[in-house]
Every structure is written in structure tokens, then in C-alpha cells.
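pinging the channel bc i need a second pair of eyes. not urgent but kinda urgent?? the chain im working w is below, pasted from the shared doc
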Amino acid sequence: MGAGTWGRLGCRPAETRPGQPRLSGLRMMARRAPPRLVRDAVDPAPLMLGNDVLGDCTAAGIGNHIRATAALAGYQVAVGTAEAEAFYAASTGYVPGDPATDLGGVEVDVLAHAARRGYALAGQTLFPVWGSADPDDPDGMRNIMAGMGAAYLGVRLALADQRDGVWDTTTPGDQTPGSWGGHCLLAWAYDGTGDADLVTLLTWGTTRRCTWRWLRSRVMEVHGLAWRQLMPADGLAPGGEDWDALVAANAAYLQGEDGSREGWIEKRKMRGWD
């Protein structure tokens, strides 16, 4: 792991799993993304969620995705540090109080755990559906931001990124992706689609700005999450056939992991997916 002025790192190298849910077949991914996604009037209210003392960015990222989704629907959900740390322990094997086990998380496994066991909060447990996209497709990433609230990213930070200001590939210092380490963060909004146009990220309890050229240089994985339990009927989420396809892909993946197809209608209802 690494530590910086803003928080700790904790995203392990990107991995893929056989049968993991994919977003490539969804209709929302085939359209041209909006040329701008300006959300100045919406406060996603990101929180640190323990990522200043632990490498729990994968758990903090999901907690902040919950908050961003709620903010877009006009309300907010309380997500506590203790809850994020408990999810980090459950999804990665971290043992609270044992620094030797604070090894970060593999994003696809953390997402699968959230879909399987949920993200437990004080008054409810939330279950996302999720899918992965091509990290070399910035238009796909923009469609996820516009259609699913925020993109859940794994990035390889460089030593040159250990400074205040806009993250860019023109910053003096070592620009080698990964020379600092791996980090999980959310891509929330963007001013345009050109190389020098700015993207707003949610990380370490605040917003951070980067250029598109920086993001293309650093990103190693892209995922989308959706929370049916949080959304009003007309809210921001994949709709119709896209939702059904995403639910089916998640159910099939978890069935494969569990080795059984029994009880999946009830499990889908319990998760609020149907």
C-alpha cells in the first residue's frame, strides 16, 4: 500500500473472472455519451470512510457510490466509517487491528461480494448489480457515468500524482503508471471529452480533478454499479431490457460461484433486483 497527503491506496492489480458480468451488450453502452456531464448543482457528499488509515478504497468507493446515487435522486444515505471498514474486512480478508492483513482488494471480487452479501448499513443492507467495461473505451466510461451515476474505477497512480492540483500527464515527476500504487475511485462528471478537458473524481472524502489524457493513462479497470433499492421508479438506472440483462448476468455469475441454481428467484427478490 502507499500513503499520501490525501489518503491511502488499496486497489490490487485488475483481474478478470470467468463469467463475470459485462456491460458491453447493454443498449446504453451503444449510444453516444453526452458531450458534457455537468453536475455542479448536485453534491455527492463523498466521505473518507477510513481510507486515511486503511487501504479500504474499494469499500469506500462502493459506500460513496451509494451516496452519489442517492444525491442524484434528491436525498442522502448515511454511510459510516465503521460500516465501510466492516465491508472491507468481509470482502477482502482484512482482520481489524492487524495491519499485516490490510492488503487492499481486487475490485471484481469486492463487487461480487457486494452483490452476494450486500453492503450493510445501520438500517438496511444494499445489494448492487454490476458489470465491467473496456478500460480503453472512454465513451463507454462516460455512458456509465451518465447512466449509472458514477463509474467505479481502478487506477494506477504515479509518483508524479503526489501533489495538489489537477492530475495531468504534464505534471513534473515520475509519470510511470503504478509507480505510486493502485487506487479505487469514482468518476463523477466531466466538462468535455477533449484530452485537456477536466473530469471530476470522488476520492478520499472530496472531489479531485483530472484531465482525460491523465485518466486514459492511469485507468486499469472500469465498472458500473446500480442500486434498484435506492432509485425512484423514474430514477437514474439502466432501464427495461438493460436492467433485466444486468440482473440475469449477476444472477448467473453468483450461481456459478455458489454451485447451485436453487432459490435464486427468492434471492433476487431479497436483493431488490426484481
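so The chain has one domain: 30-262. and The two ends are 39 Å apart (CA to CA). — does that match what u expected or am i reading it wrong
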